[in-house]
Structures are given as structure tokens and as C-alpha cells.
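Task card 7
Instruction: Convert sequence to C-alpha cells.
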Amino acid sequence: MDPVEQWRYILVRKRKRKQLPLDIEHCSPISLRNIILDVHTPSAVLERIAQVYSDDEYLLRDLVRCPKP
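Output:
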């Protein structure tokens, strides 16, 4: 590796985008439904949604029908 490629590699590695934590309590119903129906959503997030919105029948129904394998 020449020095230019090494610096390019170092700079790309250091520039990871930082994400904000997911605030499930303040999400809109549409975004929650999209999170639930996404097959790549981790089970910990789905459990948190179930805990926070245990009184919402429609979200719980979507959680039960979740396409997660």
C-alpha cells in the first residue's frame, strides 16, 4: 500500500457516522409500524416496542404478525 492509500483507508475508517439512539416512546405510529414490519429489526427493539405500547391493540397485532424469521 502506498502512503496515499493508507491515509485514505485511515480517513474512511475514522469517519463512521454516529447514529442517535432510537427513541421508541416518541415515535409516530407510522414509523413504528415500519420498524415492526422490517425483517432486519432486532428482536430487542421489538421487545421494547411491545413493552412501551402494551396498551395499543393495533401495534401489538402488527407485532404478532411480524415477518421476522
